[in-house]
Amino acid sequence: MAPIGWTKVIPPPAEISLHSAKQWLTAAALLTLAIVGLLYFGRQGHSVVNSHSPAPDFTLNQIDGTPLQLSSYRGKVVLLDFWATWCVPCREEIPHFVELQKKYGKQGLQIIGVSMDDTIDPVRPFAEKFQINYPIVMGTAKTGELYGGVLGLPIAFMIGRDGLIYHKHIGATNVTVFETEIQHLLQNGSQQ
């Protein structure tokens, strides 16, 4: 019988195959992602995206240079979309947002795009190409932090007429989900 705490040392193989090295690297990458995810989502008290919490106010410049203050849209239902020109899922969502703004704008919907691009250079031609019919502001790291950190794009927030956050969507979301939430907030005020 071996003493308690005794372990047998197994010598490593003389060569590690390329397949084994890839498996180890994949496992290490997944472990790293899991740790980062736990650290990010486990931050209590830093995120303001809890249901029915006030949407943090900000003033940011639009792509035409004029300032936009979020609180000036109080009384409207706001879909606040964090996105970037290089983000493929963002590019897929934006045409749907253009249609939602056309369909529900007169009823009180205001979509606001927060571009997280490093510079304004790609944003202006992108907005023209996609015929974006709602304001686009240039976001900052500070703006992202106000909304709990923006580690991936797209991220969208549904804000009621009362200025409270009602829904948060991480990643590409089916347009029917947004439309249902918009209809509910427009018809029922902000009571959910």
Could you explain how this protein is built, in words?
This protein has 192 residues and is an alpha/beta fold. The chain has a domain at 59-187: Glutaredoxin (3-Layer(aba) Sandwich). Helices cover 35% and strands 18% of the residues. It is built from 5 helices and 7 strands, in the order H-E-E-E-H-E-H-E-H-E-E-H. It has helices at 18-41, 88-104, 123-129, 141-146, 175-187; strands at 59-61, 67-69, 77-83, 109-115, 136-138, 155-159, 165-170. The strands form 2 sheets. A 5-stranded mixed β-sheet has the order 5-4-3-6-7, covered by helices on one side. A two-stranded antiparallel ribbon has the order 1-2. Helix 3 (123-129) links the parallel strand 4 and strand 5 (136-138). Helix 2 (88-104) runs parallel beside helix 5 (175-187).
Task: Considering the chains and any ligands shown, give keywords for the structure.
Glutaredoxin, two-stranded antiparallel sheet, 18% strand, single chain, alpha/beta, 192 residues, 5-stranded mixed beta sheet
